[in-house]
Amino acid sequence: MRNRGHLAELSDDTEIDMTPMLDIVFIMLIFFIVSMSFVKETGVTVNRPSAQTAKQQDTANIFVAITENNEIWIDKRELDIRTVRAVIEKLHISNPEGAVIIQADQNAPTGLLVKVMDQIRMAGVQDIAVAAATEE
Asked: Is the pTM of this model over 0.85?
């Protein structure tokens, strides 16, 4: 009888220390949040031209919109053509492998599209695509 009571006392006193496991979980959570790349949306909707050869681009993380009213939108802000290069450089630093997608309205002037592409290339980004809607 005496041995049984001694074993009961031992099992009541044993606990599993969860602190190291919680530390690891929080460290992993912080790692995933820091290493995650965020997509920078334009903030406006444009009427994209359609194309039969349009395909999905998966590596894009920066979107630039050009409206039919000559407005340039990046990260939900309207920008002037003179500030596009600086903003793209800043966004490109956070994800150097990412691409830039230009969402130009079908009625947007081609000259502005070329100027925006030039500013993006001067910012150091070579992977540029122009968005088009798929024809059905």
From this structure: no
